[in-house]
Design a protein that fits this description.
mainly alpha; 3 helices; 74 residues
Amino acid sequence: MRGEHQEIPKHVMTFFNEVNPYIEILPADFKQNLKQYMHLLAWQITENNYDDFPDEYFYSIKRKFIEAKSCVLH
């Protein structure tokens, strides 16, 4: 995602930093969900339609990451 770090919400940057070390081993379906979330987030930021608080999309992708990470680590 291109953009200035100050434009990307802090909780999202923290999440991306958490996902990054595992990205190569995570399932393809999670990567596709992450890509879709990143497109949504980019659109929200571009349209100045993001309020810097986690929304249902963030919670959904976060939950999917926890599940995917658990599967590949066990």
